[in-house]
Write a structure and sequence with these properties.
alpha/beta; single chain; Rossmann fold; 9 helices; 2 domains
């Protein structure tokens, strides 16, 4: 299909070869993935679809991206990555429903392995549908999932991000303040896509009494806040980062952190990554 569509657009280019390599990776068998991780399977199918419809069809020509770039920008927070208009529409259409029905971060089998390898139970705040919690439980990890507005336990539509969607595990109602309870000292905290422009992520770190923290989200992007990232830099030490499957307009990863024995002094302008 890709070869036939490219015929009308001239000889193969370096970008064609990159897309071919990506498609080969997407279609390679992943025995660790199984059928439980429906969001990852859906993500793979959408990436292959994008290669056929956008790249091979000429919609995502590099020159069109160059034309879409703004003259300058001080920050990308709260702004869609620049792209041709049709590509922007495609990105939104591809991402919005799976994010609402499953999770905003796509868990790869490698990312799940990293979390399993932490070796302690998890408490998740802002769990949404509980999709990540379900994958961890399937691997034998104990996870207690909380959300301020659990999708299935509150009024329809009261959860801003997941509406009244079904949950994959029982998600209990809970706010960040419960993370100070002594029962969580032996747990790791999991935050998956903490809401942007919100105090929620910072409140979780300030209240949490445990020593390990796992974060799924962007940096200087569309999750958490600058205050959250500054607190993370001064009070927590980065252990590991694991790349995640990305939608066309996201730049998130999984990172693991350990609480510092003593907070660092203010690091003027420094960023944890």
């Amino acid at each position: 299909l890709l070869g036939a569509q490219r015929g009308a657009h001239g000889p193969s280019t370096w970008l064609d070869r990159i897309v071919d390599a990506q498609c080969a990776w997407l279609t390679a068998p992943d025995n660790a993935l199984g059928t439980d991780n429906q969001l990852m399977l859906f993500w793979r199918a959408r990436q292959l679809e994008a290669a056929a419809l956008l790249h091979a069809g000429g919609v995502s020509d590099p020159h069109l991206y160059a034309d879409a770039l703004p003259p300058s920008s001080r920050s990308t927070r709260d702004a869609d990555p620049p792209a041709p208009p049709l590509v922007l529409e495609w990105r939104r259409a591809v991402r919005e429903w799976p994010c609402a029905l499953f999770a905003f971060g796509v868990p790869s089998s490698e990312a799940v392995d990293v979390l399993v390898g932490v070796g302690v139970p998890f408490v998740e705040m802002g769990a949404g549908t509980g999709y990540w919690a379900r994958l961890l439980r399937a691997r034998g990890v104990s996870v207690v999932a909380f959300d301020a507005e659990p999708p299935e336990r509150t009024l329809p539509g009261s959860n801003e991000f997941h509406g009244g969607c079904m949950t994959f595990v029982e998600v209990e109602q809970g706010e960040p303040n419960i993370l100070s309870e002594p029962r969580w000292r032996g747990h790791a905290l999991l935050l998956c896509y903490p809401p942007p422009r919100s105090k929620m992520a910072l409140a979780c770190l300030r209240n949490f009494c445990g020593e390990l923290f796992a974060h799924v989200g962007e940096w200087l992007g569309d999750t958490g806040s600058c205050a959250f990232e500054r607190h993370l830099l001064s009070h927590w030490e980065l252990i590991r980062r694991e790349p995640l499957p990305l939608w066309g307009d996201t730049s998130d990863d999984l990172s693991l952190w350990r609480r510092r024995a003593e907070p660092l002094p203010k690091a003027g302008g420094s960023h944890p990554l």
